[in-house]
Amino acid sequence: MSTARTTAFLIIIEPVDDSIFTINTFNAIAELTEAAWNLSYVTRVDSINNCNVIRSLDDNIDVSTIYDAPLKYSEESQLPLIKKTTLKQKMFLNHLVSSDGKYTAINIVVELPKNDQTTETIELVKEIEGALKTWQVRHPHLKHLPDWCCFNESRYQSNN
Description:
The protein is an alpha+beta fold. It has 3 helices and 6 strands. It has one domain.
């Protein structure tokens, strides 16, 4: 018997100035990450805005995000440290951020109910496209390439 289906949508983002390490880009990523959480059926959203970094500070362990959004222009001096920290994180290097810092991605995981998954997928795709159009108008210095990718994993449960 078929149950829910988990699907991931990967949105790849490229700034026109060839670096994601700007205040405008970080704040735009934070905005799109938040918008993604408001899409139907979303169970997880991963981006450089909300992934945790684990640091050792003296005798303590600190778990925090790479940066707190929104970044203010007065915090621009923090960008080199944010870049260094980001590019050192093996768990999302070449997954959520390219090693050259020219691209970043937002991974949106959804779990579609077992009803009419074709219809639900079409509706969700329209939601994502609408969110991206709105976001693109607000952030013309960024583009998503070329569209986005969808991966799915079907889960089945036996009646046994």
